């Protein structure tokens, strides 16, 4: 081996081992098998590489025209670079400077290189990094700069390598901060192309959930701050990513909701439906009532599963990069000022699409962080008109910006403008339907906006023939049945049951003083261990609340609700399934009248008893004393048993995993009972409303849009698929094979004798009548001719 180190190129040429005649792939394989035996050949190729690099740089400096046209120069340089990259791990000392030289070559002469040579050099650098001769910190800035050249293949190669390399890194790798600093510093530059590539890299890594979460919050903040970049293209790209990220999450939710039928076949742990209800839906009643009960059962199961899926989802389902803003109020004010300055100047600086994206981002920020930006609602009044382009998205932004922390006086002008512009008799049905849905969503977030007179006027639209309008009005009535039924007229309030809801005051917040739903666990323990005093059936019935009737009564009450609620299920996910039909309203009036009659009869009977029984008998007095004594003893025993029962405070207030699991099961049972009894819908919490993005398509529910000619032709062609080609009846008769038809055979049959005689008689009478009338018939010239 030592002799081979002293050989010169002449001696190698004389021995027939010249590196010029030996191909590089064959030499590469031999070097991998015997690195020490081919060290001289490596030095020759390394010297050739340096010479070709010097020649290439000189020609590039002199702008020599034959460099780009002669492919042999670039090909030899690329082949030697790739060869040395492959054998670098076998000669770490001899090729210690090679990675730095190759990096400097790509950095300094990248523009002068042809496309093939740039790809070869980039692949050689990637190979060196995979062999751990280079690190990602050395190549990240270079590969970001290389993407700005305009070479599509090189840009794709460098971008995919950066993303895949960072994805393979560990989550707790401390190098993430250094890499983020490099990319963010490039994003803050004024060069548009470099900032664009840095933004694309950050967005891709955030979308892949690599730089996601509180550990990498500086990435999300940098993307949000890119909305104020000097370049309009960078600003539009950042706004579009913030909105598209929300759309991606929304598509995931819709896909999950579309697969409800598939999920029905899978076992669920917490879906609890009473067996008796399932038995009645399949075995009791007529066929029509069975269908109603089964449809009701399916809707109840779907609603329960949807709630359980929403509660079990992780926080990433409602994640948005806007969550990591350090100062969201300043961000929203700055973006709004940029939006208003573009509008106040005589010529608008941004297009309507850009302004719309800015409105949606501002509204999303206000809803997520519950900000106070009162001038935004005044700005939206300029666009809340039916003739505006993409007005549904503007109204969705207005709904998104409403929350319980905004005073109703600031939103009232915008709310009244929507009412006056959209909901009136001369407006189109589509505009009225959208207006009613927007009013419902705004009142769901700020109930103080609605007045009694306005609500009663809007409730009259429930009798419209247009399905979209009537569904919107019924959903509005269903909402105020839950949050403030006192604003509705008596026939729209529905059946009375449970306490009357009262709207929250401005700034009122429900603060949990204990574990949520822990009372279910205590009630369950009470029902299992302790019996209530007075266990007679009559007393039990008196202690039962009004809304806890049997399931048969609940089903009979809600059978009429089934008729007209299925079609309204698309109006809103939280409201539309609870709308009622007019038949229910008539029944509620009858129930109210019956209730009033029963109350009046009870009062009359009570007055009669007072009038008759002025004196109290001694026997009744002794019986009352005895019953009072027994009830007092029962109450004492009940109190003693209650004190002996262990409380949460005595158990140090610590719940075990078994307790939490039991609470979850009890909550599922409670939701199942509510869903089957149909006692109204549960109004979402303000936090849930702020996290959920408002979908503009939900505001256009049940609206029939006019089809284009292409869509109509597709429907026509779809209807013709199973149809046979048209032929005339004579053609089909001629092509017919076989005997004659039954109709033809009937004509050939001999008539019975009685039929022949009756027919002959009818013909004789008709001839006689004709002859008698022939003499009196006028046969002169017509008077009108």
Provide an overview of this structure.
The protein has helices at residues 2-5, 9-14, 24-33, 39-61, 66-69, 71-87, 98-108, 115-130, 136-146, 152-168, 175-187, 192-207, 217-225, 232-258, 260-264, 275-283, 287-312, 328-344, 352-369, 374-380, 391-400, 408-422, 429-445, 452-459, 467-483, 518-529, 537-543, 551-558, 562-565, 582-612, 618-644, 657-677, 686-691, 709-719, 729-734, 742-748, 753-774. Among the domains are: 21-61 and 69-250, Leucine-rich Repeat Variant; 275-315, no CATH class; 327-500 and 678-698, Leucine-rich Repeat Variant. It has 785 residues and is mainly α. The radius of gyration is 42 Å and the shape is extended.
Q: Which sheet architecture does the biggest sheet show?
A: none
CATH topology of the domain at 21-61 and 69-250: Leucine-rich Repeat Variant
Structural class: mainly alpha
* Weakly predicted, low-confidence segments: 1-7, 11-16, 64-69, 248-270, 313-317, 344-348, 529-619
Please provide the count of β strands.
0
Rg on CA atoms, Å: 42 Å
CATH class of the domain at 21-61 and 69-250: Mainly Alpha
Shape: extended
Q: Quote the distance from N terminus to C terminus.
A: 133 Å
Determine the strand fraction and express it as a percent band. under 5%
Level-2 CATH architecture of the domain at 21-61 and 69-250: Alpha Horseshoe
* Helix count from the secondary structure assignment: 37
Q: Report helical residue fraction.
A: 55-70%
């Amino acid at each position: 081996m030592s002799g081979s180190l002293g050989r010169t190129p002449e001696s190698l040429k004389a021995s027939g081992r010249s590196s010029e005649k030996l191909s590089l792939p064959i030499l590469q394989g031999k070097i991998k098998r015997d690195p020490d035996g081919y060290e001289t050949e490596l030095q020759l190729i390394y010297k050739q590489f340096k010479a070709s690099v010097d020649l290439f740089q000189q020609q590039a400096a002199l702008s020599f025209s034959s460099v780009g046209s002669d492919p042999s120069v670039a090909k030899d340089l690329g082949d030697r670079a790739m060869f040395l990259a492959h054998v670098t791990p076998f000669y770490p000392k001899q090729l210690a400077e090679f990675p730095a030289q190759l990096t400097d070559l790509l950095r300094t002469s990248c523009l002068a290189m042809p496309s093939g040579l740039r790809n070869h050099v980039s692949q050689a650098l990637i190979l060196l990094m995979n062999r751990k001769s280079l690190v990602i910190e050395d190549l990240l800035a270079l590969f970001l700069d290389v993407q700005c050249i305009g070479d599509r293949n090189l840009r794709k190669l460098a971008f995919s390598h950066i993303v895949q390399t960072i994805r393979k890194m560990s989550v707790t790798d401390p190098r993430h901060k250094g890499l983020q600093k490099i990319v963010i510093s490039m994003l803050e530059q004024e060069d548009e192309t470099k900032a664009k590539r840095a933004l694309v890299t950050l967005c891709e890594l955030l979308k892949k959930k690599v730089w996601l979460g509180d550990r990498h919050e500086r990435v999300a903040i940098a993307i949000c701050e890119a909305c104020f970049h000097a370049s309009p293209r960078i600003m539009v790209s950042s706004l579009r990513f913030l909105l598209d990220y929300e759309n991606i999450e929304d598509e995931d939710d819709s896909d999950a909701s579309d697969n409800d039928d598939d999920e029905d076949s899978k076992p669920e742990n917490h879906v609890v439906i009473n067996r008796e209800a399932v038995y009645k839906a399949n075995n009791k009643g007529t066929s029509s009532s069975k269908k109603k009960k089964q449809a009701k059962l399916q809707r109840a199961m779907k609603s329960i599963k949807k709630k359980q899926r929403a509660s079990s989802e992780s926080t990433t389902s409602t994640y948005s990069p806007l969550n990591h803003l350090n100062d969201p109020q300043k961000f929203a004010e700055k973006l709004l000022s940029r939006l208003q300055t573009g509008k106040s100047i005589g010529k608008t600086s941004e297009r309507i699409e850009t302004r719309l994206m800015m409105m949606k981002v501002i509204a999303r920020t206000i809803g997520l962080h519950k900000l106070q930006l009162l001038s935004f609602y005044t700005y939206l009044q300029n666009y809340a008109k039916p003739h505006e382009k993409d007005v549904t998205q503007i109204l969705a932004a207005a709904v998104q910006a409403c929350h319980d922390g905004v005073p109703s006086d600031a939103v009232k002008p915008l709310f009244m403008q929507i009412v006056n512009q959209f909901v009136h008799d001369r407006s189109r049905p589509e505009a009225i339907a959208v207006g009613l849905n927007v009013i419902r969503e705004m009142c769901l977030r700020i109930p103080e906006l609605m007045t009694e007179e306005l609500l009663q006027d809007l409730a009259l639209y429930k009798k419209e023939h247009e399905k979209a309008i009537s569904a919107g009005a019924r959903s509005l009535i269903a909402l105020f049945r839950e949050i403030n039924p006192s604003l509705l007229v008596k026939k729209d309030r529905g059946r009375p049951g449970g306490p009357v809801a009262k709207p929250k005051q401005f700034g009122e917040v429900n603060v949990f003083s204990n574990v949520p739903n822990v009372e279910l666990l205590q009630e369950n323990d009470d029902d299992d261990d302790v019996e209530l005093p007075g266990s007679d059936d009559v007393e039990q019935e008196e202690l039962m609340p009004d809304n806890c009737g049997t399931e048969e009564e609940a089903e009979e009450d809600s059978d009429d609700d089934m008729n007209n609620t299925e079609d309204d299920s698309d109006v809103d996910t939280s409201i539309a399934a609870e709308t009622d039909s007019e038949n229910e309203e008539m029944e509620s009036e009858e129930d109210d009248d019956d209730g009033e009659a029963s109350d009046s009869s009870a009062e009359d009977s009570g007055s009669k008893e007072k009038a008759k029984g002025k004196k109290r008998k001694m026997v009744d007095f002794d019986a009352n004393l005895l019953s009072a004594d027994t009830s007092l003893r029962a109450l004492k025993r009940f109190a003693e048993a209650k004190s002996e029962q262990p409380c949460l405070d005595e158990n140090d207030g610590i719940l075990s995993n078994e307790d939490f699991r039991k609470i979850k099961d009890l909550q599922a049972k409670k939701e199942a009972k509510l869903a089957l009894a149909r006692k109204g819908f549960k109004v979402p919490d303000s936090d849930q409303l702020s996290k959920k993005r408002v979908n503009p398509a939900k505001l256009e529910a049940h609206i029939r849009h006019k089809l284009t000619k292409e869509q109509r032709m597709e429907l026509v062609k779809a209807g013709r698929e199973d149809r046979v080609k048209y032929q005339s009846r004579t053609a089909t008769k001629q092509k017919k094979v076989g005997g004659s038809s039954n109709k033809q055979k009937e004509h050939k049959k001999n008539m019975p004798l009685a039929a022949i005689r009756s027919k002959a008689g009818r013909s004789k009478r008709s001839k006689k009548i004709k002859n008698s009338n022939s003499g009196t018939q006028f046969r002169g010239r017509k008077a009108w001719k």
